[in-house]
Amino acid sequence: MAPAPFTKVTSTNTDDPELALPDHTLTGSESTPQRLKLSGYMRNHSGHAFIRAKPLYKSLAKEMRGMFLGPMPVMTFLKRFLPCETERTCPNISIGVREADFKLKKRVPGKTAEDKICNAINDSDVLTNLHFQNTSDSPLSMFESFPESERAERKIDISAFIRTQPGVAPKPAFEVLRLPIELKPPAVDIVVNPTAKSSEERKTQGFEHQTPEAVEARGQLSSYTVHQFQHQDCTHAFSVLIFGLQARLLRTDHSGVIVTEAFDYTKGDLFTEFLWRLDRAVGGDGTDEAGVDKSVTRLAHDDEVVLKARQAFAKAEDELPYVITPETQLRKVLVWDEYACASDEELSPRELIVAPSVQHSFSPLGRYTLSFPAYDPKTDTVCWMKDAWRLEEDGFEKEGDTYAKLAKLEGIEGLIPEVLCAGDVRDSNGDVQATVTQDYVDAEWAARSDNIHRYVHYRIVFKTIGRPLTTFKNTKELVQVLADALKAHTIAFKKGMILHRDISINNILIKNGRGLLIDWDMCKHLEEKEPRIPWRTGTWQFIAAQLLDSPKSTTHTLCHDLESFLWLLLYATLRYRYRLPHLTAPVDDIQAQSMFPDLEAEEDTPATQAVPVKQAEVTYMDWPEVQDYVHHLFDDKKEQGQATPKGGERKMHFLLGNAGHPLNDHIARSVDDASTRIPVPLAKLITELRGLFGPLYGALAGKTPNAVQAYADKHFRSAIYVEYCFKQALKAQDWRDDDAGQDHFVFEQRSRKRRRDVEDHSDSEAGDDDEVPQGIQTFAGRVLRSRSKRQRVADGDESPTRPGGRAASAPSLLR
């Protein structure tokens, strides 16, 4: 069903029309179209540069467009989300700030708006558990376990922290942050109040302010919430926007953000009442309301079960993807196993001891998936836990139910992990933890919103632990593991009528040299013909080119999942082992007969070339050049207006062997750091898969749509052709046993980013408009024209979350 007509009520025109509510109207697709999310894009992004603040804010705001809901009356907000049995006895707080305080060019300590607000709150009788600090010049610390590339320093104007010692100001850290407050000039409001008087009319009016400053502020507030979710065990979080003498309260869960009406925080009882209720909630009067997840408990280092868990983790060290040190903070996590008792029995939680996750989501909304090692005291074994917020909509089943169906399929044993327990998470009252933002979409006060859905907290624990795919011991093992995952995929498709739909580098594991296909929570049961929600996300780098190019009109089918296996194989080969020759290297461009004798000659493309005979000496890309090419090929995306972001064009040109991409001869000549050639079976597998999928994009080479469709019908009704390629490769003899995976890509470190920021004393992001030097030599070995960061983003060659820096994109050819 198409969305209602959209009426802008912002008073300011915007240069970014895509920041209006997104158009998710479907045009002929029977599956959910792709939506670009930072979590599905940044994890395997290859751009060199560190994630910078302002571009990240804008990307977050784009991702979350339509998901800010309001304006909710302030007292309704307080009564619903912060109920408090303790009646307030203290007087209202009076905060002596003026609008002029937000426009000071010279900031004098003690005279700033931040200082005045903090002093007024701390000196009142409102607080017993919280302490407010001016952190506008003090970055909040992060967990040391965070990857260096994700540990960007963030400064919040005002931060409320849990008081740990009386009279001692807490150290600024996201771990103890309970309320971020962002200050903006009087004109910078993140939303606009609907002008309609009736509820029906309000549902046609947009809510999110469209000025660049408002967009950035929404992303900025959302980034603080991301860090709260990353560093704390919470179901939702509060924040405050202050703009001049007005303020709005925000509550964010994994469904969306509820925003209140604007109110005067300098006087009156609303702001005082909010602080009173929040302080009592975090102090224990209502920890569920404060967002604390009571199903997780931190444990002391000398706790008996912690000592047993550490011993078990140490014994299983070779099986675990990362090291659990003696200093690692362990927690007790409860899992309600819905498969261990009859439906009419009361569920009792199972206690497991877990280590922290080393991978985190880049967005506060959606599934927010985490995974980590766990110790099961009941069986004295190490297992693996996945913690996520599942989408609860018609047609979506729990992942545990999907695994139960898969486990019954003949031949799939050993190709998917075995489940230990799984179930929805409960709060301290025994109620299922779920988002609530969606419950207010139709409220009388609510303006129009988009894509706000109900999510339920869910945990699933696996007996089986596998190594990451990137830790392959040699490339034959890599191919074997992918072949096993392909077999699991085929069994699920043929015997279970289930299509996985997220073949990616994180969803295939290695277990004793063989493959496991995991993460079936995005799968589709083929009897469901219609799209279930107006969008879905995936791992951008491995999505089939057609889905990226036509995200709304293309139905996700078997051939798209099969194509993802090729992208995964190519990505792993180029990032973790072998360097390409420069693309100007002389090569043998002679066509060869396809390995499939039943393919007609007219279906061949320039990509179906034989592994060539020995040629002249060539020069090779260094690793930064390989990284540039992988970034150029896999991170390709374009965002135009409010339309769904697109990509895949460069993938299509790769499959067709077009200019700017390696020919099969280049791939066959790839070498490692010891100048040893890529194994012939691996090069042949990549090139044969390339030749197999290339004709799907024959329209670019002049083929008729009917011819392309006939080819697809003939070769992708099943996985038989792709399976044949893998089987032939594994039968070959010319493999190496010493070409293990090693990540060769280098990303900008925080120290370098800080040095650049120190050198730039303005408020702008340092280095955002740095240009590539004239005449730089890149992977193409050609003379290139440098481009500004603005032009690189406009061309789709650079992510806004990894801007600038050393060769962060593929420059355009000098013409």
Q: How many E strands?
A: 24
The secondary structure category is: alpha+beta
Reported for the largest beta sheet, the result is:
8 strands, mixed
Count of the domains: 4
- Shape verdict: globular
Question: Roughly what is the average pLDDT, rounded to an integer?
Answer: 83
- Could you name the ranges where pLDDT drops below 50 across 5 or more consecutive residues? 1-29, 589-593, 597-610, 755-815
Helix content: 25-40%
Specify Rg, calculated over alpha carbons.
27 Å
Question: Can you offer a commentary on this structure?
Answer:
This protein has 20 helices and 24 strands. With 815 residues, the chain is α+β, with helices and mostly antiparallel strands. It has four domains: 53-285, no CATH class; 296-467, 2-Layer Sandwich (Phosphorylase Kinase, domain 1), CATH 3.30.200; 578-714, no CATH class; 769-815, no CATH class. Strands 1, 2, 3, 4, 5, 6, 7 and 8 form an eight-stranded mixed β-sheet that branches. Strands 9-10-11-12-13-15-14 form a seven-stranded antiparallel β-sheet. A three-stranded antiparallel β-sheet has the order 16-18-19. Helix 16 runs antiparallel to helix 18. The longest helix is centred in the middle third of the chain and has 22 residues, at 475-496. Residues 1-29, 589-593, 597-610 and 755-815 have low confidence and may be disordered.
